Amino acid sequence: MARGPLVAPLAESLVSPASVPPVSVPPVGVSPSNASPSSVSPTRPSAGSTPDLFADCAPAAPGAPLALAPGAFVLPRLALADAPALLDGMHGVLAQAPLRHWVTPGGLRMSVAMSNCGALGWVSDRTGYRYDARDPVTGRAWPQMPPALRELASRAAAAAGYADFRPDACLINRYEPGARLSLHQDRDERDLDQPIVSVSLGLPAMFVFGGARRSDPTRRVPLCHGDGVVWGGPSRLFHHGVLAVKAGEHELTGAVRFNLTFRVAG
Ligand code: MD3
Ligand code: FE
């Protein structure tokens, strides 16, 4: 992914391709893929307010898919029942490929700690961002993607209309309190017609979601423990980020938030 600079540029410089192919399979069981943002639900108006993320996350059961933007669907609490198995699988990966703070090409240490599983992993250093078959820290191939993770990703993609999602990369992000991800696009994957699936676990976070241009207006969407999101079609290249995670305690993850993103990278 081509992460944006940690300090936003003064002028708009990034513009996505003029046309992004629409998703090839229309989402089933959800609003039309061109649903307007107003079909997004019950996020409270965030401008000027101090959202209580824990209150936003109160419904502790899976809910109907919400159209977030063209091609983007939130799957509320999709992974709730599978969360313990997902965390088990993730911790197995982290025992082989420990979390680390990458350095950006600009020389800044990322506040989010990362690792990967699957054939390819997202890495960053002073030379740039890339997908790599090896973990630069251990020199070994990334651990295999645990079946529980792969299956959840495929179930999420299917729920948003993508029938044969076969990710070859899973990026593991760990947010300690204060960690954040500045506005960026994910565009280092080879086939941008393939969606990205994300699963959030543990502490809640406020996700920031913009548009094709860095200067487009943004909206805030709380992401809760167990939430799945699928980003495809026109929204695949939309700018997005995560506000600083607030301190808290989650019964399964303790004082941190994890986010898993599943990608077809190679
Ligand atoms: C929208 N991670 O790893 S997941 C990332 O919560 C990343 O850790 C965030 O952004 C996190 O690159 C957000 C949601 C997400 C992932 C990929 C996207 C949203 C996206 C790609 C395109 C558009
Ligand atoms: Fe991203």
Shape: globular
Kindly state the mean pLDDT as a whole number? 84
Number of strands: 13
Please write the string of helix (H) and strand (E) elements: HEEHEEEHEEEEEEEE
Q: Span from first to last CA?
A: 13 Å
Strand arrangement within the widest β-sheet reads 1-2-11-8-13-6-3
Strand content: 15-25%
Compute the number of helices: 3
Q: What hetero molecules are in the model?
A: N-(carboxycarbonyl)-S-(naphthalen-2-ylmethyl)-L-cysteine, fe (iii) ion
Protein structure class:
alpha+beta
Low-confidence stretches: 3-48
Q: Write down the Rg.
A: 17 Å
Assembly state: single chain
Q: In percent, how helical is the residue content?
A: 10-25%
Q: Biggest sheet, open or closed, and with what strands and sense?
A: 7 strands, antiparallel
Please write out the topology.
Layout: H1 53-56, E1 66-69, E2 72-75, H2 83-96, E3 113-117, E4 121-125, E5 128-132, H3 147-159, E6 169-175, E7 181-184, E8 196-202, E9 205-209, E10 219-223, E11 228-231, E12 240-242, E13 257-263
The protein binds N-(carboxycarbonyl)-S-(naphthalen-2-ylmethyl)-L-cysteine and fe (iii) ion.
Explain what you see.
The protein is of the alpha+beta class and about 270 residues long. Helices cover about 10% and strands about 25% of the residues. The chain has three helices and 13 strands; from the N terminus they run H-E-E-H-E-E-E-H-E-E-E-E-E-E-E-E. It has helices at about 55, 85-95, 145-160, and strands spanning about 65-70, 70-75, 115, 120-125, 130, 170-175, 180-185, 195-200, 205-210, 220-225, 230, 240, 255-265. The strands form three sheets. A seven-stranded antiparallel beta sheet has the order 1-2-11-8-13-6-3, covered by helices on one side. The longest helix is centred in the middle third of the chain and has 14 residues, at about 85-95. The chain is globular, with a radius of gyration of 17 Å. The model is unreliable at about 5-50 (pLDDT under 50). Fe (iii) ion binds near residues 1, 184 and 240. N-(carboxycarbonyl)-S-(naphthalen-2-ylmethyl)-L-cysteine binds next to strand 6, strand 8, strand 11, strand 12 and strand 13.
